[in-house]
Automatic annotation (TrEMBL):
GO terms for cellular component: synaptonemal complex. InterPro entries: CCNB1IP1. It comes from Rhizopus stolonifer (Rhizopus nigricans). GO terms for biological process: reciprocal meiotic recombination. This is Cyclin B1 interacting protein 1, E3 ubiquitin protein ligase. The keyword Disulfide bond does not apply. Transmembrane segments: none annotated. GO terms for molecular function: ubiquitin protein ligase activity. It comes from the Eukaryota.
Amino acid sequence: IDIFCVDCSNHVFSKALVCPACNASLGQNDDIILTDMNPSEDYKSSVLAGLKPEVILDICSRAIAFYEYQTSQELLYKSMMQKNVEDKYHALKDKFQMITRDLNHVIKSEKEKNTALWKDFEQEKAKYQQALTRLDEKSKQFQRLQTIYEKLKRKTNTSNMQENLLSPPPATTPYRTNNLVEFQQLQDRVPFTIINKVDHLVFLHLLKQLHFIRENAIILRVEQIKEEALTADIIKRYD
């Protein structure tokens, strides 16, 4: 025996008289009965009236057996629904725990990376401050060295010029050929009357002095270039 609502019965039995639950044929007259689930008091007092007690008990026992069957089926259905819900719950719980575990691992890893980055940042910041302090010290030291260098350079240039003007030229320096050429060039530029009034030997001596001063000027220029290169190298090292 199976029980269905009125709407489902009309929809199913309009196509074929077959039970949709057990596929039993319902061709007999009493195979399909319409029962009111909320009978009135008059119906209750008259439905079994006039029947023998054994018939009434048989009807009641069958009705109770059907009720137990329906109740057991309902409990089985609910237990199946509960099992399905529990399975879904456990699956979602496991998935949630796995996602939470992965998320916690990612958060922990990111925190460790963040801590390491902050540590590296602080170290680089400290190195930068130390380098900046050393740069300031080196810049001040370079300024002092530059000032001392300029003073020594001016002093050296002045003393060298004075020594070159006061000291005689070296005796081993070959001047004869060049001096004669320079003498001829100077004679072309200086008036002839002035050249004739100057003693030839004295003029050659003065010309040697001028030639010596010019060579020393070239040497001083070479020294100046070396000093500039040395200064540039020092600045490059401090940079």
